[in-house]
Every structure is written in C-alpha cells, then in structure tokens.
Amino acid sequence: MNIDFNKNIISQIFSCRPFLVIWFICISAIQYVFAQKQTLPSHEILLSKIENTFSDAQYDSSIYLSQQFLINSKNSTQYQLAKSWIARNQIKLGQFSKASQTIDSLLDLTQQLSQNLLINLLIDKSEIFLQRGYGENAAEIILKAEKMQEKSGIQETNLLAQLYTQKAIIYWNLGDFQPALEYAFNALANYKKASSYSALGEARLLNDIGLILMAQNSTDANTYFLKSKSIYTQLNKANTIEYANLLNNIAFYFKSQSMHKEAISIMDTVLMIRLKIYPSVHTNIAFTYASMANIYFEMKAYSSASEWIKKSLHLYQSLYSYKHPEIASAYNLLAQIDLEFQNPRQSIRHINQAIIANSYQFNDSLHLDANPNMGDINQLELMCSSLLLKAKSFEEVFNTEKPQLKYIKMAVASLSLADTVIWKLKNLRTNKNDKLRLSKWSSEIYLSLIRNHLLLSKFTKRHQYHHSKAFIYSERNKASILMSAIADANSKQFAGIPDSLIQKENFLKKEISFYEKELAKSKSSIESEKNIKQIFNYNTQYQKYITNLELKYPSYFQLKYQRDDKFSEQDAQHLLSNDEAMISYSIDDNNKVLYTFVLTKNKLRAFEQLLSFDFNRKISALRNSIVLHVKQVYQENAQELYKILLKNKIPSKVKTLYFIPDGRLSTIPLEALLTQSVSNSSGYSSLPYLLNNFNIAYHSSAILFCQKAQQKLDYKNTIRLVAPIEFSKIDNVQPADLPSTKEEVSEIALLFEKNLGKAYRYEYKKATEAILKSGDFDYSRIIHLATHGLVDENKPELSKIFLYPEANNSDDGLLYSGEIYNLKLNCDLITLSACQTGLGKITQGEGIIGLSRSLLYAGAKNILVSLWSVSDQSTYMLMKNFYTDLYTKENFQKGYSRSLRAAKLSIIKADAKFCDPYYWAAFTLIGK
After folding, report:
1. Beta-sheet pairing, 780-785 with 758-763
2. How far apart (Å, rounded) are the C-alpha atoms in residues 151 and 263?
3. Model confidence over 178-227: pLDDT tens digits?
4. SS3 of 109, please?
5. Which of 156, 538, 691, 722 has the CB geometry, 3.0–4.6 Å to 511, for a possible disulfide?
6. What is the three-state SS of 679-709?
7. Class of residue 435 by CB neighbours under 10 A (exposed 0-12, middle 13-18, buried 19+)
8. What contacts 819, CB < 8 A, 6 or more positions away?
9. Contact criterion met (CB below 8 Å) for 287 and 247
10. CA-CA distance, 581 to 650, in Å (whole number)?
C-alpha cells in the first residue's frame, strides 16, 4: 500500500485542530507499517518467529512454529529448512533419537539439499553424537562437514562460525584444548563478520573460549567469562539458558580457585534458571546436579556430594539407560567418595559400572578383574581415570584386609591397560601443550605401576622381573613427548620423504613457532587473538600436510605410530661399560616416596624409601646456598642429600655415573654432593665432593639415553665457535659484555686446529642468528656458543640465546627455544657457555623444558649447559681446561664427562679463588 499526500489535503489537515493532526499522523503511520509488513512473505515472518523462539529457549514453541512452517511450505527448500529447525529444537530438548531420525530423513535427500544445509545438518548430527557421549564419532562427522565446506569453497561467515564453534567444542570434549581454542577464536572472528551477528551470539562464544582456557588452567578464563557476563547483563538476558551455562562455568572457575561457597551460591542460581526452562528430566539438569556434587566433593563434604551425584546419576540413567560417559563420571565420583569413607569394595563395584558405561560393548560386572579391550573404549581419558581408581581400590583392599597378592595383580592389570590408553592418547593429541598436560596427568598412573611392581617383587620369587617392569615404567614416565617428537622426525628420514616436502614442513613449523613466541609475548587479548588466528591458519595447513604424508608414505605412518614396547634394561646395559652405572630417580610427591634404580652392566637394583616432608626444601637450600655462597648451609644439605640419594647405592669399581633425575633434582649439580661429614672449618678445595670419585653426566630418560648413544652422525671434523662479546639492549634486556669470551673462543679454536681439524670463529657482528640458521653449522663435530642465555620458567617458548642483532634483517638477535627446534644441527657436542641454559620449566612426567630440550631435538648428541649465572672469568678457565683435556687424541674417545671432570678438578685444586662450587658446579653434561 502506497500513501501519497496531496498538497491540498495536507493543507486542510494542518488547518484543523492539533489533535486531528496527531490522529491523522498516527493512523497513517500504522497503515504504513502494516503495508510494509504485508510486503514480507508470510514464510519469512514465520521463520523469524522460529529463530526468535529458539534463541529464547522456547523450544516447544519453536517446534510448533516449525511444524506450521512445514505444513505451509511451498517448495522443497522451505520443507528442508522446516525439518532442520525441528531437529535443532529436538536436540536442545534432549530428544536425540527423534532429532537423529529427523536429520537422517533429510540426509536421505542428499542430492536435493544445498551444500549449506547439508553442512548444517552434519553439524547438528555431530552434536547428537557429542551429547550421547560419542566424541570420536562427533569428530568424524564434523571433519566430513569441514571437508565438504573446503571442497565447495563456501566462505560464508555464518556457516564458518557454526562449523568452527562445533569443532572447538568437540576438541574441548576430547581433551585437545589448544586446537579447541584456535577454532573458538576463529569462530568468533567469523561470527563478528557474519550477517547473523548478534551480541548474544558473541557472548556465547566468549563463554566457550573461557571454558577452554579454564581447561588449560589459564587465569585468562575469567576475563572472557566477565566479557560474556557483561553482554548478558547489558541485554537484560540474565534468566536465559545461555546465561545459566555461563554461570555454571564461572562456578567451576571459582572451584578451581578454592572459592567453594561462592561456587555453590552460583550453582543455586543455575539450577533455578534451568528448572524454570527445562523439563525435570533433562541432561542440563543432570549436569547441574553433577556440578554441585563435584564442588561439594572438593569441599570434602562427602555426604552432600553423594546425595547430589546420585540425583544426577538417576537422571542420566533415565535418559541414556546405562551407557554414557556422564554416567561413567558419576560412578567415578561415587567410587572416590567410597574410598574417602574407607569402603574400597563398594568403590570397585562403582568403578566397574563406570567402565561399563564408558565402553561400547563391555558389560561384565561380575568379575572384579575384568576390563574392556582397547577398541571397546569410548572416552579414553575418562577410562584412564576409572582404571586408576580401580587400582587404588584394589590396593586399599590389600592394605586394609588380609593381604592377598591377587589384588595387587588386579591393580597392575588395570594400570597396564591405562598405560596402553595413554600411548594412544599421546598419538591423538596434536598440540604440545595438550601433550604436556597429558604427561603431567598420567604421571600418577606410572608411579602406581612402579609402586605395585616393587610390592610384587617383595612377595614373589620374580624379583628381577618386577624390578625390570618398575624400571621400564619409570623411564616411560620421562620425556616421552620429546622422544615421540624425535621418533617422528626420524620416521620422516627413514620413509624416504622428498626434500621438497621436508622444506614445506620446515616453513610451516617456523611460522607456527614464530606466532607461538608472539602469543607468549602478547600483552592484551587483542594481540593474543591475532596470534592465535595465525597459529590456527598454519596449524590447519600443517595438519593437512601430515595427513597427506601419512596417506602417501605408509612406511612413515607405520614408523610414527608403532609402539616401542621393546625397551628393557638390557638395552641400556649393552651401552654401559663395566665401570659405568646409570642411576635413575622417580619421585612420588603425593606419597613422599623416592624410587631409585641403579643399573650396571650386569645388574639392576631398585630402592624405595620414604622422604621427609622437607625433601624439596633441602634441594632448594643446596642450590641457593651454592649460588649465594652460604658455606655452612651448603655443607649440611650436600651431606644430607648424598645420604638420601646415593649412600650405599653405588657399586664398587664404578667410575662413571649417568644420572637421570626427576622433578627438582634436575636443578642441582649432584657432583657437588659431599660423600662424608666435614667440619665447618674445611676449605672448599678439600671437601669430599662426589666429583672427586666419578665422571658424571645426565640424561632425560634411559630410553633417550639409548637412542642418543646409538645415533649415527656423519659429522665433519670441524668446530664452530660463536661469541657476540659485546651486547646492546635487546627486548628490554641489557646483557653485560663478555670480554673473556673473545680469548675463550680464540684459544679453543687454536687447540682444535692443532689436534683435530678446522675451526670457524664468528665474533662480534658475525655472531648472528642468520649464521646459525644458515645450514653451515649442520653436522659440525662441535658447536660452542659463548654468550648469554635467558630461561623463562613460566613460558619456556620465550627461553632464548643472545646473539648479535642485524639491523637490516628480520633476525632480532634472539634465538628462541622454538627456533632451535627448527634447526637441524646434528652435531656431537653443543656447548652453551652461557648463563642458566640448563634450566627451564619443571613439568611432571617430562622434566625440564627449556633450551637443552630444544637442542636435543635439533640433533645434538651431547650438550654442555649451565644451571645458574657464572662469572665470565671462571667460565673462561673452565672451558679452556675442558677443551685442553678433551683435544688430546687419547682422551677424545673417552667421553666428554671425563674431560669435564678433569676441568672442574683442576679449578678446585689449582685456583683458590674459584674452588667454591658456585664457579664450577653450574656446568653439567647431558649425554656421555
């Protein structure tokens, strides 16, 4: 309807009384609006109502409107759209069987469906599998949807936002948190550009990002929760389902900060909102009850926790019968409560129900020792939790009732399956941070295996067998991620992959490394999001590259994923001489137990001892007293730690010790331990250091020790020495100049050329990043870096080596840990004549993560690093003595540890100024 105002009519109107004018304007406006609305097709109006009722969580109303839309549909497109909205609402109502039938009926019409709708249907189908507890199936379907999107070339931001959001939630559900975060940020970026953008949609995505960050134990999680909460508050949407979901996550964040009362108060609000919207039997209500239970459990209010989890379990069983991961989680919590109430047999019964709920086919509830096959397990991490709880329950039965070894054997059987599950999980995880989290989390399983095998060794005649198994699990619990990364690199080498593809991989890894470094340096959420987007883009390309590689080169796939179950103590013994011993430690901090394994050429011995509550304090005191020159404190702790760690454990005739430390033991030089009691008046030069009697070296694990010892390097008989000597301010750090390093590298070069081969020196402006990255250093026999190093224990990827910056080059003079990973040095020895290069972030199950780890990956067979900042002059003396001893032909084949010991002893005995351990004990050898 068009309204034309004639000038005469208008003049007549305005000549009337004012109220008539107002009346006419109002009537005309109403007619105009009505006329405009009439121009909208009725199906668009109905579709808008469907979307609005869905957004307001009025799912029954939305279904009713969708059915009306279906009845009035005039073509196949409208029919398909109506059915898809019905399915989406059915999912929200928890009617998963109905939703699945609705979607399948549409998928039968695949040839008639648009690509957009088909992809949306796959997204919804993946959600059904996810809600039913089948995360792997959901991942398969969403991958199919993603491939379809890529093939069709659709770049519609609405669709990409939905696709990436779903993929983020699936990754989060499977425990792959870093890819989840990358997809969530990309979903947010696409959603902000989408035609369907709304502030509410942004609030939902901000909540998802906070949830993923919380899973990574990031304090940034609360920032995103608060951003989301602010939007809901501004839009007056504080009584919606989405707001309740946000509050649920905030409650769990408070729980993680031990703010339990606040968490419970928030969950009361969540329950009130959800009960108003959902029917009493709904997954979200069951989840609310389970959340309450978990918070009460952490508060040690076990009776309340039991009441809430039973309510949750009852609802879940009415929805899913007895097969669902949430049912397994509920039984797991009941089992934990049973153990707190000292009822291990009831705990075992609950755990068996958990295992049944988390298996596809397994249903054996009668046999206590029964476990599913690997291929029958649904959620892998959840199964590991159940198996660990089962083992704990068997141990508790053994300890509280008449001891019967069958219970320990049952515990070992459960833990052995968990070990296999962990191996599979580590292959599935694509991001190193998620792998590190897994290593830390799985460490308890390996410590339990060590404990139980040593217990069996005491009560059976198979002492050596159980000592061997305990030793293997001890080593499997160390540096496994580093070893798998090295194995992956070796697999590419042996699979005959062409250089062009390797170069492509190197490019992608360099880009990922660069943006990971920038992410670690980010000072705002805007910077973080920008870098995460770049990481996402390159990670996506990298994953496609790897998938293509596995398809085209089956030998690479086989080498990469085959499990190395062949390692035993004999592999290490084969590499040991008659006068060498390997001493490996595993520390169980929860139970205050130290496990020590002493391996010689012909024997393996295992020791188990309780630790005092101040064991870690003794380690810190030893390190600090050396660095701060507090002699009395040093002597006391050096003697105490020798008694704990080594007294009566080193066999006679042994002259060389290879230490495999654990935890904080990695931060102290064990050669500085004192083997006898001494008076306070004793001078530093006369103290009974462990170093006096043994050559000493270190390694991350016995398995890696074997791999490195057998590493064949076709290196050139050259040494390359790098010394910037003078330093300018870089990255807000002003390193001190190192004038002695000029003389240091000069003398080392002369010694090498006189005895062995060609020496190359890079000093001042020549000591750049570019020269290290150029390839000239690859396969040199020795690389010597006389410079500063800086380790970041909170963000290991920001650990760096200082070099000379190039004004007209992108290299900033800082060689970061991530950049070292991308080098292919493959040398016999790298010496970091620098400060604190042997330190890093201590991660349970992986050891120290820092510069030394990246150098091992880059191909270094042996590494010489320092544990603290050392004076320029004493470092020069130590290095001169080390290389002087090393470069005699009769000594070179005897190993680096012998020459390092000789260098240290020469300083202790010949120079009163530097005999203090501070000056010589910092430098430690990783290797042989």
Report:
1. unpaired
2. 46
3. 899 999 999 999 999 888 888 988 999 999 999 999 998 888 899 999 99
4. coil
5. 538
6. CCCCCHHHCCEHHHCCEEEECCCHHHHHHHH
7. buried
8. 510, 513, 517, 769, 773
9. no
10. 8
